[in-house]
Amino acid sequence: MAKTPVIAIVDDDEGVRASLASLVRSLGYEAHAYESGVAFLREPAGEDPACMIADVQMPVITGDELQARLVASGRHFPIIFMTAFPSEPVRQRVMAAGAHCYLGKPSSGDEIIRRLEEALAGHAPQ
Questions:
Q1: From 3.40.50.980, 3.10.450.50, 2.160.10.10, 3.40.50.2300, which CATH number describes the 6-87+101-121 domain?
Q2: CB atoms within 10 A of CB 58
């Protein structure tokens, strides 16, 4: 029996975390929500998520700093970045470091689903 993919959701906004977790679960995936990059990094070492949906603007560790720490430690999995404050330099940096995509907030549920399905299938964003 195939293991249900785990999607990590990292966002400091509780409402966003809850709505993304609900969306992810409605697709049949397991959602693990974290209030910060620090909370995600504190998790005991184990199996990485199949994909991460992360906010860019978070206190202590920004989404792009979280990505840099993950990459530096050899952890590679698709990351879907979302931000209410899009910045071309940040977009270029996270995409160059291997992000799956960089979305503005708010994004439609359909867009998030499409990007998540692409990431899980190993397809490059269109």
A1: 3.40.50.2300
A2: 22
